[in-house]
Amino acid sequence: MARLRSFQRLAAHFVDIADFLLVYIEEAHPSDGWVSSDAAYNIPKHQCLQDRLRAAQLMREGAPDCPLAVDTMDNASSAAYGAYFERLYIIQEEKVMYQGGRGPEGYKISELRTWLDEYKTRLQSPSTVVIQV
């Protein structure tokens, strides 16, 4: 949940230059599977989309101001983006501009913040215009 709150703070800070979206994917540590000793929730493996939607509501509670999407039961989003377990992306004009490392070790809000800070600086810098006469 701490990572989710950090993500929400980041989203609030950069709301003027970026749209943020959380995508809930397959549960990494289901209570009836590979259980993590520090799991915050007791979520069994999703058997149907309704199970996944219910579990996603827990994510919604951690970041109520951020739009939330839920991956399909065939895990199409996770497969397309290599997101399993968790991952940060910046997508601009249908192109991946930033791909963070795989979580939990590679999930680094600080890297995402740096990218967004640099992007914001570029947006605020006046462009150089060359006029040939």
From TrEMBL:
Coiled-coil stretches noted in the UniProt entry, renumbered to this chain: none
Keywords attached to this entry: Oxidoreductase, Selenocysteine, Thyroid hormones biosynthesis
GO biological process: hormone biosynthetic process; thyroid hormone metabolic process
Record has Oxidoreductase as a keyword: yes
Name of one Pfam family that matches: T4_deiodinase
Domain of life, source organism: Eukaryota
Tagged with keyword Flavoprotein: no
UniProt xrefs under InterPro entries: Iodothyronine_deiodinase (IPR000643)
Single annotated GO MF: thyroxine 5'-deiodinase activity
Homology family: Belongs to the iodothyronine deiodinase family.
Main function: Responsible for the deiodination of T4 (3,5,3',5'-tetraiodothyronine).
Full protein name: Iodothyronine deiodinase
